[in-house]
Automatic annotation (TrEMBL):
Region Disordered: start-end pairs: 178-220
Keywords assigned: Hydrolase
Native organism taxonomy: Bacteria, Bacillati, Actinomycetota, Actinomycetes, Pseudonocardiales
Protein name per UniProt: DUF402 domain-containing protein
InterPro entries per UniProt: DUF402 (IPR007295), FomD-like_sf (IPR035930), Ntdp-like (IPR050212)
Domain DUF402: 61-182
Keyword Aminoacyl-tRNA synthetase carried by entry: no
Record Pfam families: DUF402
Organism: Amycolatopsis plumensis
Bias type Pro residues, positions: 196-207
Keyword Protein biosynthesis carried by entry: no
Length: 220
């Protein structure tokens, strides 16, 4: 458990590091609960984020699979779009669970981002995106996501086989929870509604697109 805790209402950023130590995407989150081990936070649609593109200007999804992890990436300003997310980010687990809500506030499903935890800094929770992910539907059924990207990432050394094995084991653990309808897939927080008076979380000034610095999408 970390001795660094954040108070409800504070803004903290989730930073996705790359294996070479550089930082990719940065997402500002509004803190709902934090006990030093598990952070529960909110990222609404429309929030400005730091995203990334390939250095040649393409989005990751626009590049052939064999190029996606070979071409350098650059930060670009963007916003979180498509759905709002409630995120449960545990310090000692290789995953974070994202509740997806549509633009009308209705719960859609869970997306489990498999990640390598790196601890906390004063204003951030730091992770390495594990590329492989898990999608959990409302009925508890689940499936792997981005398996092909994970294989491509291993080929170029973006992930080691040892890391991949642990990430896959974490996905299996998550899938077993989903099949049992166990927390966090038991309906908890599926009726969550943010305070309508909350402003969008903001990036730190040095990362804000308004400052001329910052970043945009390509999930990693």
């Amino acid at each position: 458990m970390s001795d660094r805790r954040w108070r409800p209402g504070e803004t903290v950023v989730e930073r996705f590091h790359r294996p070479d130590g550089s930082i990719g995407q940065v997402h500002p989150l509004r803190v709902l609960e934090d006990d030093g081990r598990v952070l529960l936070a909110w990222l609404p649609a429309g929030t400005p984020i730091v995203g990334s593109r390939l250095a040649d200007g393409r989005l990751m999804r626009d590049a052939p699979l064999d190029q996606r992890f070979r071409i350098p990436r650059v930060p670009v300003p963007d916003s979180w779009h498509g759905a709002s997310t409630l995120r449960r980010i545990p310090e000692d687990e290789w995953s974070s669970v994202w509740w997806f809500f549509d633009l009308d506030g209705r719960f859609k499903n869970w997306y489990v981002n498999l990640e390598i935890p790196l601890g906390r800094t004063p204003g951030a929770v730091d992770r390495i995106d594990g590329v492989l992910d898990v999608v959990v539907e409302r009925d508890g059924s689940w499936r792997w996501d981005d398996e092909d990207e994970a294989e491509a990432a291993i080929e170029v050394g973006r992930l080691t086989l040892e890391q991949f094995d642990r990430l896959r084991a974490e996905g299996e653990r998550i899938g077993a929870l989903a099949e049992r309808g166990a927390y966090p897939f038991d309906g908890t927080d599926t009726e969550f509604r943010p305070d309508p008076g909350w402003p969008l979380p903001e990036l730190p000034p040095e990362l804000s697109p308004r400052s001329g610095e910052g970043s945009a999408p390509a999930r990693r």
